[in-house]
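In response to reviewer comment 3 from the previous cycle, which asked for concrete evidence that the modeling workflow produces usable outputs, we include below a single protein chain processed end to end. The sequence was submitted unchanged, and the resulting structure tokens are shown without manual editing.
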Amino acid sequence: MRYAHTQLLIGALLALLAGCLFAAPAQAAPVLCDKYASTTVQNGRYVVINNVWGADTAQCIDVNQNGGFTVTQAAHNKATNGAPASYPAIYAGCHYATCSTGSNLPMQASSSAFGSLRTAVSMTYPGSGVWDAAYDIWFDPTPRTDGQNTGAEIMVWLNHTGSIQPVGSQIGTVSLAGGTWQVWYGNIGWNVISYVRTSPTSSIDFTINTFLSDAISRGYAQRSWYLTSVQAGFEPWVGGAGLAVNSFSFGSGGGTTDTTPPSTPGTPNAANTTSTGTTLTWGASSDNVGVTGYDVLRATGSSAFSVVGATASTSYTDSGLTPSTTYRYRVRARDAAGNLSPESAAVTVTTLSGGGGGGCTAVATTQTQWQNGYVIQPVTVTNTGSATKNGWTVTFTLPAGHTITGSWNATLSVSGSTVTARNTGSNGTLGPNASTSFGFQATRPDGNSQVPSGYTCA
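The workflow returned the following structure tokens.
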């Protein structure tokens, strides 16, 4: 049995597909040769990924801004009883925290708008190599925009060569979308349902619900789950140059537009408030289609509320706050069509006084983060006292599984989950109201979105 599909080993091998894996969006028509390079096309409507996740051999794709790409170089030579070398693809929706524009995904499959979702693709195949040409359609029990989906992965194989086959075993045959398909099923931590066309085709146009309904009828998917992304591309084992997506589309096939916003969320409650952070929880919103997430808004003093974070759950931890400071929070809900609920009533939170001798604060800013790492910079250390201080120490909590890989303008030591940062010889003396800063970089487990918290200064 060979293990084949876009993310067969997604949990380990594709966790890099966020942050550093994704290149900055571009509106030119680039040639992508880096293993995990990506770009957007049609002004962000779709994302194209090179995605050489299963090999170290060279692969390049020439991106077509009209909505496709061509594999121009592929030096793969993998055994056909194992995983493929890559999955160059174009997609709509959200995949490992990179989302296309205007897809309205994630979308719950029980929504009225879901039934009208359609996709179409046209492909070109070379006369050599070992590969499959397949859709990869992902569902999750939650409106996930990052990390590994855990519901169902529906693969639609338009064509394939050689002795390769989908994950699992064949369980039946079905007529759908103008063709006859072998149905395969396997579970690798989530359900993989593959439809292999018995007579190859180079193009197809179908509603997403066509294949999902069949999967649901077999007990392998649920109507309550959310469609997160629709991807079309190729899995090459040997060669692959000449494989091309000529055109790709995804969108509504004429269903009614959802203009109804979610209901107002419950008033937030604050708990576990420290000198630099607090955790908020609130009552869920309801929606005629489905709530996809919440925005958290914050204000201090007389300033206006502004968005400081987003979450798919009904809780959020805000960190990097200033000790002895009063904040106000509100939340609002979002649905798959982008409708926003009214903002909730506000909760007022006052952080505790700064630790370690008073008159010293440490406020951290997350400069950038990706799927398995982040950079915290600056961590601003301020002498809030009336006298000059000689030397400072900042402590904070490092989440489980995280590892600091570098730092600057401070000396860092780690004991368990506690990190201690001490001044260097050049930035230890701070006059009244004077500040200095340091920074660090760290790695984290795949799919973990946490950053350090609980910064205190002495």
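Residues 208-217 form the longest helix (10 residues). We consider this sufficient to address the reviewer's concern, and the full set will be provided in the supplementary archive.
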